Amino acid sequence: MAAAGVSKPVLGVETSCDETGVAVYDPARGLLAHRLYSQAAMHAEYGGVVPELASRDHVRKLLPLIEATLREAGIGMHGLGGVAYTAGPGLAGALLVGAGVARALAWALQIPALGVHHMEGHLLAPLLEPDPPQPPFVALLVSGGHSMLVNVAGIGRYALLGDTLDDAAGEAFDKTAMLLGLPYPGGPALAELATRGRRDAFAFTRPLLDRPGLDFSFSGLKTQVLLAWQRSDRSAGVRADIAAGFEAAMVETLVEKCRRALRAADSTRLVVAGGVGANRALREALAHSGAQDGFRTWFPRPEFCTDNGAMIAHVGALRLAAGQQGDAAIRIRPRWPLDSLEAAVA
Ligand code: KG4
Ligand code: ZN
User: Fold this and answer.
1) What are the sequence ranges of the domains in the chain?
2) Which of 23, 77, 96, 300 could form a disulfide with 304 if both were Cys (CB 3.0 to 4.6 A apart)?
């Protein structure tokens, strides 16, 4: 579906889960504006994302957010050259809101639109920062729904090196946080509590490090944490120790898998993205390990680790510039393998 590439600013729309994200990315000038509305407070009452409530809230918030973002970018709707939206993976109802609005807007403006892969958005988010990495590199993608190691040969040229066998890294953080009675979303709250605990008070296993391979599994660690909590006096000190012990096991496992992946790919360049990439202990441990082993790690700024519209506008702009665009149908892909994407060559 090659067409003349888009060179004007691209609107990005992210509605795959519980954040409404909108941004404008200009191929020549970079990111012009980005806005985020988080539904976290609404879902907190239920201890997790309620899909139907998420869809309804995207309906309420998306149009005003688009208007505000365009104002901030200093361009009107007619200044746009294309629209990109998250087509998957994610919650079907939530995805449909973004896809429907984005396609309708593009249709009205007679400009191209493109459905973007949410994880490709995360994967390339470090390229929004100054001094970005150039492919080839290895990427660790750790979010609420995924834990993956990917060999990145170029934009859209992704080979899966490792995947999760059960819970995603963010999910493991969220479930542990919930067990310890922390508010949703659990990852940041657990990381904060961990700073007050002792990392070695509990000897939790480092999942799958005793075996070769690049897959992840966190269910055993989750069970150990559950048992430790049930057998404890549930004091504030124990709570912080369990949080610190859990985070240490997660971080050590992720760092070791990254080192293995870099060796397997014969690379010294690592990119870390997705919500868990905001974790300070992980960022510090990778910097430390890289200094010893001779690899460098690139992260997005913390606000672009978690879901946002900037990463979608960015990938959309890259792919639209390469002449890719979809037809007018409103299609979503709640399940969508990352390694099935088309390469993008401008
Ligand atoms: O990428 P993301 O915003 O959404 C998905 O695409 O899933 O990732 C959200 C996940 C949640 O599980 C959240 O608890 C986790 O990222 N997370 C963190 C931190 N910040 C967000 N986990 C550990 N430490 C953090 N600082
Ligand atoms: Zn995400």
Assistant:
1) 10-124+305-340, 134-299
2) 300
Say how many Å lie between the CA of residue 170 and the centre of ligand 2: 10
Domains 10-124+305-340 and 134-299 share a fold: yes
Give the residue ranges of the chain where pLDDT is below 70.
1-3, 346
* pLDDT at residue number 335: 96
CATH 3.30.420.40 assigned to domain 134-299? The reply is yes
> Which residue, judged by its Cα, is nearest atom 26 of ligand 1?
279
User: Considering every ligand atom, which ligand is closest to the CA of 282?
Assistant: 1
pTM, entire model: 0.96
pLDDT at 167: 94
Question: What's domain 10-124+305-340's superfamily in CATH?
Answer: ATPase, nucleotide binding domain (3.30.420.40)
CA of residue 306 to ligand 1 center, whole Å: 6
Report pLDDT for 124.
98
What number does the ligand 1 atom closest to the CA of 280 have?
26
pLDDT of residue 3: 55
Cβ contacts of 189-194, under 8 Å, gap ≥ 24 = 190/243, 190/246, 190/247, 191/247, 191/279, 191/280, 191/281, 193/239, 193/240, 193/243, 193/244, 194/240, 194/243, 194/244, 194/246, 194/247, 194/248, 194/281
